[in-house]
From TrEMBL:
RING-type domain sequence ranges: 188-229
Name of the protein in question: Non-structural maintenance of chromosomes element 1 homolog
Keyword field contains Iron-sulfur: no
Subunit structure: Component of the Smc5-Smc6 complex.
Species for this entry: Emberiza fucata
Cited Pfam families: SMC_Nse1, zf-RING-like
Matching InterPro entries: Nse1 (IPR011513), Nse1_RING_C4HC3-type (IPR014857), WH-like_DNA-bd_sf (IPR036388), Znf_RING (IPR001841), Znf_RING/FYVE/PHD (IPR013083)
EC number per UniProt: 2.3.2.27
Keywords: Chromosome, DNA damage, DNA recombination, DNA repair, Metal-binding, Nucleus, Telomere, Transferase, Ubl conjugation pathway, Zinc, Zinc-finger
Gene3D superfamilies: 3.90.1150.220, Winged helix-like DNA-binding domain superfamily/Winged helix DNA-binding domain, Zinc/RING finger domain, C3HC4 (zinc finger)
Primary localization: nucleus
Catalytic activity: S-ubiquitinyl-[E2 ubiquitin-conjugating enzyme]-L-cysteine + [acceptor protein]-L-lysine = [E2 ubiquitin-conjugating enzyme]-L-cysteine + N(6)-ubiquitinyl-[acceptor protein]-L-lysine
Lineage: Eukaryota, Metazoa, Chordata, Craniata, Vertebrata
PROSITE patterns associated with the record: ZF_RING_2
Gene name of the encoded protein: Nsmce1
Amino acid sequence: NNLMAAQMTNAHRRFLQVLMSNGITEGSEARKLHQHCCETDKVYYAHDKMDDFISTINSHLQPLFMQIRKGISEDDGRAHYAVVNLAETEVTKMASDYTEIELELFRKTMDLIILSENGFASSTDILNLADQLKKKKMKKKEAEQVLKVFVEDKWLSEKNGQYTLHTRCIIEMEQYILSNYQDVARKCNICHSLAIQSQVCESCGIGMHLPCVRKYFRGQTEPRCPKCNEFWSCDTP
């Protein structure tokens, strides 16, 4: 209730504006922005109060069905923040930026990534989908260009010809992915965020992000599953 009553200051508005224009903001950048906005607007600043600062913004965004959400990079475990539109489900939030054919390629790419063993899809496999699109076939050159745009717009990440979902995509589409891929989508047993790139316990099937695996098993001589206590058979990073 106190949070609902907390006033949105210019500092809050400026913070929200920058977050929205960035699409996604890395944790340390968000902390710098928090300090800068508070100091510029001459409002109370404390480095450990960013969560409260964001909660105040979120209480005012609630009637607009929007929210600032925190997620972690599956690559290095670093926190990131993005503004999510809760009213838009599915890939509709992308519909204003891309054509129907481009969205179909994105959905098919998402299928490949989420249904894969390791959370990646090769460019070869994705480009092979280009001539199987329902609306109309896409030339491989054209598909390469579209993939490049998805990477630039932070929906996909690419490393050595392997594509995965960008942290922004995971934060914004977590609910969509969990409800549309119920059989395969899982949350990390440690941080409880959606895990696309993960290691899975062979005994009980729980999954963990690689950075979470690294942290959890640090210093343990014999890694055991946090849920069933069986030996963790994957190579710990």
